[in-house]
Write a structure and sequence with these properties.
The complex is a heterodimer of chains A (418) and B (302). Chain A is mostly beta strands and 418 residues long. Chain A contains one helix and 25 strands. Chain A has two domains: 310 residues, Porin (Beta Barrel); 97 residues, Immunoglobulins (Immunoglobulin-like, Sandwich), CATH 2.60.40.10. Chain B contains 14 helices and no strands. The longest helix of chain B has 38 residues. Classes of the chains: A mainly beta (418), B mainly alpha (302).
């Protein structure tokens, strides 16, 4: 039921946000196969389970919609995931949604919030919600430090036969990123629970990565990660009688034992673009778990590879947004406009004294309107007018069209004729 | 009401009617004279007639129309591209803009064009610029180039680019290393995009960026794509404009072809700085998992 609701929510979001103007959309379909000895190393999972050693597939379809205006940027991400563990014959399925808002106060300071939720379900289900306000300081154009602090709400259902279990974690994150020379990327991060402060050593996750980006868009990165968690166990030693009995047994001793667990992880990631829409990628990772008090040591690894298809859909082509294309043909300038709405189109601009009954655009084929002009070299501003019955409407130009301010509060497209 | 009162009122109405008719006639005569003067100063007859008709249709009064024509005549006398004032007014009336707003825009345009040509005319006398103009006469005649450049520069000034920045940019474009492989259309396009680049703390930085683009072989069409491509890259990377400009400048410096740079920008790659096109959660680092999931601080359960 929850899964169906999630699909409905994501579909509605995709339809309404994606269709809105001034949004840029990206759809990525990602499929990878891999083998891991611990689901903690699986993408999207991060649950410790060495019993689930298995080959796996992960297929995801994710839409990212981004909006940007002046100093504000907002991105919404939503998607569906399917991750079958092949040896078990069972699969995890679910979805995620993310909101990321950022406001730039100056060239060196920005602030915003990251929030999101995810739901994964198999024999048990896990639901996460989180919200983290963040402040980013740019120490130089390509060096940033980011501080985040917020809460994560987690709910498990039917996990280890426990009906419902909910927790809340208050977390902080301190991130650093720098690009020393446009090819190399260095990142470092410190993450932990606010409860542990100021004793960071009681629980933290620190990571560092170095990445290299090639000119063709390929990239390779190496990441190292250390996690440490200290837990205190109170043990009763000696004495007799019922625990918590009355009167208290003074021979009984209370001992606090501190247990330290450490996980060291390494991973190597690479991406290679095949063309504009397809890219292949691969990951190899390993971890070492060590529990100081019990002496348990464990090694796990993961290897995976896959292919990604991504494209930018244009949902708004029927909403009065046009992208004029100009070509020189027989010393004349030819304009082609793709438009599927109703009505007649006219070209109105400097070249016809801005007359509304100016240059009609001829419908050449389905959705393609054409006009030819004989223009001398120079710069020409223009707009496209749609007339249907008594209705006259200036069509909006897409973000890809070069436009200039018309000084009256609107935008004109501009054509430069050589 | 007594009969002499009626006569008095009738007389007053008659006098008032005569006065207003005379005023109207006077204004009509004034417009006709201005139209003649405008024609004589080189403005196109058909455009002027169209302006008169359109102003009438849109309810502009003769005072507003005469201000527009007078401004155009003044511009012509000052050797400014006066047809721009007529075109801007025609555009305004066509778009249904109120006449007083059109008058204000035309007046501001006059002022900015005047400032622009004061910078452009001496610049055009530079030997390197003259050399370029002689080389490219077929592409765009000198007079046309001067007017187009003045229009582009005045547009920049209307959008708060200072005359000093315009002067600085032109001065750098005039250097032999830049202008030797640049044409008039490229320079007009470069000046035109100056106010469209993302907001930076220092407008000089935008100017230097444009000069580097010309030096890097950007032609008019690629230049026109730059503002939206940069905005797209800024959007993807969430970096401040200054960083994006610096990244692109670095690509230009390294000799990456203009087309490739534009493509990179649209794809969110600024030649350094975070790449776009990677929805969160799809990065391959498994420790990132689903964002801020279990890997941060809650240990591991079995």
């Amino acid at each position: 039921m929850r899964f169906v609701f999630l699909i409905m929510l994501i579909t509605t979001s995709i339809t309404s946000i994606g269709k809105a103007q001034n949004w840029q959309n990206l759809i990525s379909v990602d499929s990878r196969f891999g083998y891991s000895t611990n689901t903690y190393l699986n993408p999207f999972m991060s649950d410790w389970n060495t019993a689930a050693e298995s080959s796996y597939n992960l297929t995801s379809a994710i839409l990212k919609s981004s909006w940007y205006k002046r100093r504000n940027s907002l991105s919404l991400t939503g998607g569906l995931l399917y991750e079958p563990l092949l040896s078990e014959g069972k699969g995890w399925k679910g979805g995620l949604g993310l909101i990321n808002y950022n406001h730039r106060f100056s060239n060196s300071i920005s602030a915003g919030i990251e929030a999101g939720g995810s739901y994964m379900s198999n024999s048990y289900s896990r639901t996460l919600f989180w919200a983290q306000p963040k402040v980013t300081a740019f120490l130089s154009p390509f060096t940033l430090v980011r501080l985040k602090a917020g809460s994560i709400f987690r709910n498990y259902r039917n996990y280890s036969n426990v009906g419902d279990e909910s927790n809340r974690f208050d977390l902080y994150a301190l991130e650093f990123e720098t690009w020393p020379n446009y090819r190399w990327q260095l990142k470092a991060g410190l993450y932990g629970s606010l409860d542990t402060l100021p004793s960071i050593q009681n629980g933290f996750n620190v990571n560092g990565s170095v990445g290299y980006y090639f000119r063709n868009g390929a990239s390779v990165s190496f990441t190292g990660n250390l996690e440490q968690y200290k837990t205190q166990q109170i043990q009763q030693i000696g004495g007799g009688g019922p625990p918590m009995g009355f009167p208290p047994n003074h021979n009984q001793q209370t001992v606090t034992a501190v247990n330290t667990d450490r996980i060291i992880k390494f991973s190597l990631d690479g991406t290679y673009p095949l063309n504009e829409r397809f890219s292949v990628f691969g990951t190899a990772g390993a971890l070492n778990f060590n529990s100081q008090s019990t002496g348990i040591t464990e090694n796990d690894y993961e290897i995976s590879g896959g292919i990604r298809f991504s494209f930018e859909p244009r949902f708004n082509k029927n909403r009065g947004v046009v992208t004029p294309e100009w070509h020189q043909k027989d010393r004349q300038q030819q304009i082609n406009i793709k438009y599927s709405g109703k009505g007649r189109l006219y070209l109105v601009g400097d070249f016809n004294d801005w007359s509304r009954t100016g240059i009609p655009l001829r419908k050449q084929s389905d959705d393609i309107y054409v006009a030819q002009l004989n223009l001398t070299p120079g710069a020409y501003e223009y707009k496209v007018l749609r007339i249907q019955g008594d209705t006259q409407e200036w069509l909006t130009f897409s973000d890809d069209t070069y436009t200039v301010s018309d000084s009256y509060g609107s935008q004109n497209a501009m054509l430069l004729v050589e | 009401m007594k009969s002499y009162t009626k006569i008095l009122i009738t007389l007053m109405i008659a006098v008032l009617s005569l006065v207003s008719a005379k005023n109207l006639y006077g204004q009509e005569t004034n417009i006709k004279a201005l139209m003649k003067q405008a024609r004589e100063s080189g403005l196109e007859q058909s455009a002027l007639v169209e302006l008169q008709n359109r102003a009438k249709q849109r309810g502009a009064d003769n005072q507003q129309l005469s201000t527009i024509i007078k401004t155009a005549i003044s511009m012509s006398k000052e050797n400014l591209p006066a047809e721009v004032a007529v075109q801007k007014s025609l555009e305004g009336f066509s778009k249904g803009i109120p006449a007083d707003r059109i008058v204000a825009v035309v007046k501001r345009m006059h002022q900015n064009l005047g400032q622009a040509v004061k910078i452009i005319d001496p610049w055009m006398q530079k030997p390197t610029v003259q050399e370029m103009l002689n080389r490219t006469t077929k592409e765009m005649p000198q007079k046309k180039f001067r007017n187009e450049l003045a229009k582009a520069a005045s547009k920049s000034m209307m959008q708060n680019i200072s005359a000093e920045t315009v002067k600085n940019v032109l001065s750098q474009i005039g250097n032999k290393t830049v202008i030797s492989h640049t044409g008039p259309t490229d320079i007009v396009a470069a000046m035109g995009i100056l106010p469209d680049l993302p907001e930076t703390a220092d407008p000089k930085r935008s100017g230097a960026f444009i000069v580097r683009a010309l030096k890097g072989g950007f032609k008019a069409d690629a230049l026109q794509q730059l503002p939206s491509a940069i905005k797209m890259a800024q959007h993807h990377s969430e970096l401040p404009a200054a960083s994006v400009l610096e990244g692109v400048a670095s690509q230009m410096k390294k000799g990456v072809p203009a087309r490739q740079i534009i493509q990179n920008l649209f794809n969110g790659k600024i030649g350094g700085g975070p790449q776009g096109h990677k929805p969160k959660g799809l990065d391959h680092n498994s420790n990132h998992g689903n964002g801020n999931g279990n890997s941060h601080g809650n240990g591991h359960g079995t």
